[in-house]
Amino acid sequence: HRLIAPSMSALGRVTLVTRALRRYANVCASSSPRARLATARVAAKPRATSTARATSSRRMTTNAVAVDAQTTTEPRWDLEKHFGYAGTNDSAIDEAMSAVEKACEGFKATYEGTLDTSLLAAIETYEGIEQTLTTVLSYMSLSADTRLMDDAVQQRKGALMQQYGQASGNYLTWFGLELADMAESALEAQYAKDAKLKNYKPYIDEVRRSAPYNLSKEVERALTVRSSFTGKGKVIEFYGNELSRLQFDLDGKKVNMEVLLAKMTSSKDTMVRRQCMKTLNDGLKDFERICALSLNMAAGSWAIENKERGFKNLRSSRNLSNNLPDDVVDSLLAAVATTGVDYCKKYYTLKKQILKSTQGLETFTWADRNASIDIGSGEDNYSWEQAVDLVHKGYNKFSPTMADMFTKFVDEKRIDVPAQDGKRGGAYCSSAYGSGPFQLLNFTHSARDVATLAHESGHAVHFELSYPQGILQFHPPLTLAETASIFGEMIVFRDLLEKTPSDEDRLAMIMSKVDDIINSVVRQCSFDKFEEKVHTMRAKGTVTPEEMSKAWRECTEEYYGKEGEIFDSLEDTSHLYAYVSHFHNVAFYVYAYAFGDLLVGSLYGAYMKQPEGFEAKLLDLLRAGGTKDFVEAVEPFGLDPKSATFWSDALHAHLGGLMAEAEELSKKLGYSS
To answer: Which residues, including other chains, have CB under 8 Å from residue 463's CB and lie 6 or more apart?
Structure first.
C-alpha cells in the first residue's frame, strides 16, 4: 500500500518517526492487486439501477470517463463533520498547530534526559501531541487527495507538513532515541514501580529494537528537519501528483488511468484490451523520466540509509519495522519464486485454453492476462447500492460484528466513492486515529470495485477494532495489516460462489479469484524482485529509464515465462513499472501482499476445518492491533510460521484447491483437455 504521509528522511527508520508515519498514513492500493482485480462476479443479473441516481452515464461503457464532482450522486466522505473543521483554511487548524508546537517544545524541555524516572508521564504527554498532529494532518491529507488540481489546497498541505517536520525534528526526535538507548535496568525499575507502563510494552519494545541502527541525536534531528524541504520527499510527492494527473486518449476522449485500466480489464474484446495496453504503456513512456528521477531518489536514499545505519541486507530495514527476521521473508520469496511460479504458469496455460475456446483468442498477450472469462449469466455492472448490499451480506454471513461496522462506515459518510479527475487514483483506507477510518475509492461499477470495497472495508474494520490499543499501538505491523482486508474479500467471494447457478458461472468466479491471488502473490513478489534489481544498480550509480525497463522485462520473464512460453506476446509492457507508486513511497513493501494473502489462505483453511469459535479468534487478532507479532497472533489458529514448509504449504492450500476445481470444470465444459 502506498503511504501518503509527511516527507521524512528514512521511511524504514523504526523510531518515533516511523510510528508517526504509520499513523498519518493512508493505507492505499493504487497499484495493488486489490484495486485492480476483484474476487468475483455475481451469477444473478444486477437489479435495475435506482432512479434516484445517474444510470447509463455511470456505467462502464466504451465511452466511460471520470465523473465530475458536481454531477455524481455517489456518496462523498464528510470530512468536515468528522474532523470538526469548516474547511482547509479553517483558522482552527492553525491554532491547533501553534498549540502543538508549544506542546512539543514543552515536552522536550520537561522530559529530555529524565526518561529513566519519568517514562510513563512522557509517553502519555507524547500521546496527546500525536493525537493533535494526527487530526490536523490526516484531515489535510485526505482533503488534498480529492483536490489534486487545487494548488492552494496542495500548498496548504505542504506548509503544514513542513511545520510538522520542523516541530518533530526539533522537539520530538530525541524521544525515540533516548527510549531506545535506555538501560534495561532503568526500564525494569519503572515497570515494577507502575503497572500502567506495562500497557505500553509493545510500543516500547518496537522503539527499542531500532537501537543498533539509530544515529546520533544531532544527525537524526537534522535529517528530520530538512526532510520537508530537501531530499527525496518532494520529488516523490511530485511523482505521485503527476501520476494522478496523467491523461490518456480513449475513444477520442481524455481519461485518467483509473478509467483506462477499468476499460482494459472489463472488455471482452482482445483488440480493445491490446489498444488500452498500448495506450497505457505509450503514455507511461512519456512519464519515464519523472519516474526514473523519483525512483533514483528513493533507492539512493534507501542505500545510504542502510549503509549509515548498518543494515546488512536490502530488506532488513523493512523487515525490522515488520518485526520479522530476514530469513522468514527470504523463505516467503523463495517459495513464491518456485512453487508460486509453477502455479502461475499452470494457471495462465489453463486461462489461455479457456479464452481460445470461449472468445476465439489465438494470440495470448499480456493485455489478456486479467481478461474476464466471458461465460455464464453474470454481468460486470453494479450500482453502488448493489455493491454495498453484496459486501454487507458476505460480511454478515461470517461476522455480524463486521457487517454492522461496515454499515456504520457507509451511513456515516466515511467513504469517498466516485472516480473523477483531480482525485488520487486507486483505493485506500486511512486510519486517521481519533476521527477515522476513511476510505477513498474510484468506483467504476465493476465486480473488481465490489472486491475493492470488501478489501478496504476490512482495513476499516481492523482499525476500528484496534483503536482501543491507543494511538501508539493500534496500527498492526505490515505482516498482519492485510489480514482483515483480504479475509473480507474472501468471505464475500465464498458467499457469492455458493450462489452460482451453473458450472459456467462457478468457473468464471474461480478464475477471477485465482487471477486475484496470482496478482497478490506472484506479481507482487516479481515487483519485489524488480525493486531488488533497481536498488542494487542504484548503489553503484544512477539507474536510467532504459535499465529500469530492462530489469522490468527480466522480472516478468522470470515469474511468467519468456515470450512464447505462456504469453505469445509481451508487447507494450516496457514501462508498466512507472505506475507502481509503492516503489517510491515505501521500499520493499510489496511482499506484504503475498504475506497477507497466503496468511489469509492458511487462516481460511483453518476456518473451514474448525469454524466454531473462529470468528471470535479472528476479531481478537484484529483487536490486538500492533501489540502482537506475527507468530504470536496466528498461534491460536494452530499455524506455525516457523515451519520450513509454511509458505509452500500455504501456496498449495490457497491455490491448489481452486486450481484443481477450475481444471475439472474446464474439462467438464469442454474448454480444455
So the answer is: 429, 431, 433, 436, 437, 474, 475
